[in-house]
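note to self: the first set is below, dont mix up w the second
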Amino acid sequence: MTARIAFVASDAPSAQTARGALVTRYGTVPEEEADVIVALGGDGFMLQTLHGSQHLPAPVYGMNRGTVGFLMNEYSETDLLDRLAAAEEAVINPLKMKAQTVDGKMHDALAINEVSLLRAGPQAAKLKITIDGHLRLEELVCDGALVATPAGSTAYNYSAHGPILPIGSDVLALTAVAAFRPRRWRGALLPKSAHVRFDVINPDRRPVMADADSIWVENVLWVEIQSEPSIEHRLLFDPGHGLEERLLREQFV
């Protein structure tokens, strides 16, 4: 039986053109009726699609019409049905962020790649780090810090010199961004079950913002982060080009 495909695309002209060609060739259905969702764009659009379809049973197969395309497969129009039939599935869980701002408001968000805290003023941020209720770092003076999933470990985390994590590992990366004190402290590896809390020291003079997959919260007072196992994102990849292989390959370039 032919799979019912929902084609979605970013606003980029190349993605819109690709969607038109694929819809003409294969037809399309609404996402709610699809057996598989095909996302056309870059990694940013893939994250947007995963967030938007997390309540649906259909897995997401991405084809790159952007730049890096780490979460995407190569684009081709002619052999899509065969590729979908042979695709390998990777299941990832997002991070859940809860944050309170200095005005007392609460904010919740989900992040597939990472939750990051960044200084929002001219002075370095000062953060206190607590893991599972135990104070682990009294004061981190830095430009920021982040918690990354294995799927997101090659993104901002890797640029900040954090470790690349195997996709099947039950581990999160806690990585500092330009740490000043403790000097050269770059973070820690945490179990996936860890509950991470950042408290902002002197938030009036040293404001900090939090970001969960491009959902920004300004002037945070504290941020709590933990994995959300009740939500599963299903991604499809061509055989031999899945997340596990890509994460391994990134460590040898």
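second set (the one i keep forgetting abt)
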Amino acid sequence: MKKFLIFTIRILLLTVLLLIILDFIYTSIYSHSSKRSKVEQVYTSKNKDYDVIILGSSRANNHFVTPLFEQKGLKAFNYGMSGGHLFEASLLLKLMVERNYKIKTVLLEADLNLSNEERAEGVSARFLPYIHQSKTIRDHFSKENDFRALYYIPFYRYIVFDTRIGFREAYKTAIAATTNSLDHLGYYPLGNKKGNMKNNIANLKPLHNKYYEEIKQICKTNRINLIVVTTPMCSTVLGMDYFEKVIKMYPEIHNYEGVVQGDTYFSSCGHLNDAGAKKFTSIIISDFFTK
């Protein structure tokens, strides 16, 4: 019995030691990469200077054509993240401040993403390799139900989010394989292939969203000009009074949901194609960035 207990304890100790070693290896890999995601790029950089930073979900990532800002002499980058919520947008902006970015204007897409305060599991996982190195990331996750497990159990976060930061992603990161997420200054163009063109958002309700409030406060504290807009939807969407509720709750948000007319400009009901995005971005630049 005594030998069995000793054997069991040794196995447990070896397992814990292996998890600690794997955690160290994976974290080291991600800490030295800046080519596979926008989160990595921000985390591994500092002292960048931008005229315009774009934040939001896919409706920012696919809608704001960053090179058009550059053509107007504005240094810009689109940090919109497909699938992301305001949880991640707020955290990314906090990281930029932590990394001493100098930002004149934040252009934020806030519309459908105002309806929840949950984190987007797949996108938020990109921050987790750095949870022990960055107080900003640690504090942002600290109120999440699984924070203790993510923070205190070695390698746990890499197992739980294996599809995002597990072996396959760590391997590609280690060999410096690139993705297209940083191409076109962060803008991701969509084609003309039609996706879902019959969206129904009647059940969505905008919240007094704490992460939106965080973004406003960060910009105010750091003297960053904040421009907040809703972005276009196709003509067949049901429940478009949602946008009226958004503006009623947050009068400072500029409503652009109907500014691009014609479903030929849409790749799906909630996402403009490349031609639509260029049309929309030109309007935004004309309205807010032309002196």
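remember for set 2: The CA atoms of residues 123 and 250 lie 26 Å apart.
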